[in-house]
Amino acid sequence: MSILDERKKYRQDKIMKRIIKIVITLTFVVGVLLLFINPIFEHIISPMISHHVNKEVAHIPNDKMKKNNEKLDKLLGNRPRDDTEKGDYLRNNLTNKVLKKGSASSSSTANYTHEQITKALNDGSIPLKDDQGIVYDYSNVRPIKASDMRKAHLNKNYLRGRIVIPNVKLNLPILEGVSDQNLWVGAGTMKPNQKMGQGNYALAGHYVEAPNLLFSPLHRVQVGDYIFTCDGSHVYQYKTTERKILNKHAGQVVENSQGNNIITLITCQDLQARQRLMIRGELVHSMKISNAPEDIKNYFS
């Protein structure tokens, strides 16, 4: 072998070694990213998104939130729901099964079409293909993934108000329905025609590893803790009376037959969504937001 051939082979070997090093380095970097992508999203990116959403909601004037509630009430018919009335349909909001008293169960969606939503609410800021509409089928809610947070945004068309639990630093928007869009950024109403301070006001939210994100703080709520909701005109103060682990099919806990002037908060007990955690509170006070004490006003500013 000539000297030129040896030099050529040496250069080729050197280039090959560099390529192998680069491939090994890239493989290591990709592996590390895949390993830490969920913690990065849950503990860094998702809290940033949540903070941005809360800031966005805080800047919405109360009168605008009130008008949005009126628009939603008009769309939903604003018919008071009494689950104890003769012949009324009882809905299991975790399985979406509908049972009429004295008859066999059947299924129903109680969902509203994209066209109805767009006509009644959509201001054009959300493309129709990205708008899931109003849905109440909690059985179709899937555990949240890190990749979901890239698509998370606040759809103001469905904004109902806010929920605050000071002792666990929970502060989230309340949105109509339990669509993925809603639950990526806040708490969703579990049945139509709900009114804060009336009946059994039922909300659902996601549980994730990040302890202060979405409904994860519910795991630290204790009996006696106060829960506040606001609809833009009034503040409703509830006191926690019960926390309970439920079977994932125990949808009856969100029905109005469970009690009056109560709030029921539902999230997963574990990341695999095998059980549910329920927090329940009783209404102790309601007031106009303009008459609320300064510390309570500050929760919603």
Structure, described:
The chain has 301 residues and is α+β, with helices and mostly antiparallel strands. Helix content is 30%, strand content 24%. It is built from five helices and eleven strands; from the N terminus they run ααβββαββαββββββα. It has helices at residues 3-58, 62-76, 114-120, 180-185, 294-299, and strands spanning 89-92, 97-100, 105-107, 159-165, 170-175, 187-189, 200-204, 226-230, 234-247, 262-268, 275-288. An eight-stranded mixed barrel has the order 4-5-6-7-10-11-9-8. Strands 1-2-3 form a three-stranded antiparallel sheet, with no helix packed on it. A hairpin with a 4-residue loop joins β4 (159-165) and β5. The radius of gyration is 25 Å and the shape is elongated.
Low-pLDDT parts are 79-110
Class by helix and strand content? alpha+beta
Distance between the termini: 81 Å
Q: Could you spell the SSE succession in H and E letters?
A: HHEEEHEEHEEEEEEH
C-alpha geometry = elongated
Q: Give the percentage of residues in beta strands.
A: 15-25%
Report the sheet with the most strands, covering strand number, pairing sense and barrel closure: 8 strands, mixed, barrel
Strand arrangement within the widest β-sheet reads 4-5-6-7-10-11-9-8
Helix content: 25-40%
Helix segment tally: 5
In total, the number of strands is 11
Radius of gyration: 25 Å
Query: Average pLDDT across residues?
Result: 78
Quick structural summary:
The chain has 301 residues and is of the alpha+beta class. The protein has helices spanning 3-58, 62-76, 114-120, 180-185, 294-299; strands spanning 89-92, 97-100, 105-107, 159-165, 170-175, 187-189, 200-204, 226-230, 234-247, 262-268, 275-288. It contains five helices and eleven strands.
